[in-house]
Amino acid sequence: MSAPLLVVEGLRKDFPVRRGLGEMLGARRYVHAVNGVSFTIGPEETFAIVGESGSGKSTTGRMIARLIEPTAGAIAFDGGDWLALRGGALRRARRHVQMMFQNPFNSLDPRWSVERIVAEPLVAHRMVPPAQLRDRVVELLESVGMGAQHLQRYPHQFSGGQRQRIGLARALALRPRLLVADEPVSALDVSVQAQVLTLLREIRRRYRLGMMFISHDLSVVRYISDRVGIMYLGELVESGPTAAVFRQPRHPYTAALLAAAPRPEPGRRGTRVALKGEIPSPMDLPAGCPFHPRCPVAEARCAMEKPPLVETGAGRRAACHYPERAPQILVPGLIARGAPVPP
To answer: Residue 58 and residue 50: Cα distance in Å, rounded?
Structure first.
């Protein structure tokens, strides 16, 4: 088994909150956006992080790409200390980790032609002689289903799906080893989503790269990822092979997400679980398990003792005192403490 391409240990990000006049004399407060996240990504693996808005998944991706700096934790990339890189060493290493953004219109300079957008990283890193630059740009565009006829057009002249393809071509220009894709299809129509997802799977195989795929859409994650991590309130609460996690979740939050997901069969009735309460504030995290105020199978222990993210077998991990109860949420009438789950 090959060594992981990326190893993340105890990653944290706290954002200071600007104080008002009434808080000038009080202690400084922080938004705990990411709170001790750990995971690995293999050399040619797609690891997806899924969670609700505000769960910290995009902040995690931006720390991996070194767009923002973590408060604490460690990141090893290809065996080296990724966070220790500074100055020229970081600039040279950046080519190995590239990012694909959620909104392709905002991430592409509207004043630049497609040719200049895709050529920019090649010029910045001096990877292609000037005489070969246009040919390389055309090659990159063709790899994402576009071509030379698009070189002199501008972002506003393309559809959302085409703009995302341009962003992908730019990300691939430096031949990265890891692609961080932050909600790359959430702004697209469903039919276009399928095209972009199929392209991403093909690109991963062709370029033999690892991918960190960030999404809130379970159906998208099921299609594209090898392994998945479920994120809640800045923490990973479950991780493992995608098929196994979706088949039998080991954390109640994962089960609640699966139970609430839309079903493709019209007229088929499933179990919907309305989680009680609201997501706690990331400035004031609850004691014990962060999910316990909303968990339908929580016990008194959950409010006092925080469960660690531990192995539950077959490459799976869950942060729950009672992982065997999670599947109850998927079965009608079994959301009761201690109720057995049928085989």
So the answer is: 10
pLDDT digits (tens, 9 = 90+) for 39-83: 999 999 999 999 988 899 999 999 999 999 999 999 999 999 999
- Residue 116 DSSP one-character state: H
CA distance 331 to 343: 11
Is-contact 72 63, C-beta < 8 A? no
Distance CA(212)–CA(148), nearest Å, equals 30
The answer on pLDDT for 201 being more than 80 is yes
> Quick check: 70 and 63 in contact, CB under 8 A?
yes
Six-digit token string for 203? 């690109």
At residue 263, the pLDDT reads: 65
* HEC secondary structure over 221-252: HHHHCCEEEEEECCEEEEEEEHHHHHHCCCCH
pLDDT by residue (tens digit) across 220-233? Answer: 999 999 999 999 99
Exposure on the CB side of residue 222, measured as CA atoms within 13 A: 11
CA distance 118 to 163: 12
Q: Are strands 97-100 and 227-232 parallel, antiparallel or unpaired?
A: unpaired
What stretches of the chain adopt beta strand conformation (E)? Answer: 6-16, 30-41, 46-50, 72-77, 80-81, 97-100, 178-182, 210-215, 227-232, 235-241, 310-313, 316-318
Q: Which residues contact 176 (CB under 8 A, 6 or more apart)?
A: 95, 96, 97, 98, 209
pLDDT by residue (tens digit) across 98-108? 999 888 778 89
**57 contact partners, CB below 8 Å, separation of at least 6:** 49, 50, 51, 214, 231
Q: How far apart are CA 325 and CA 309, in angstroms?
A: 16
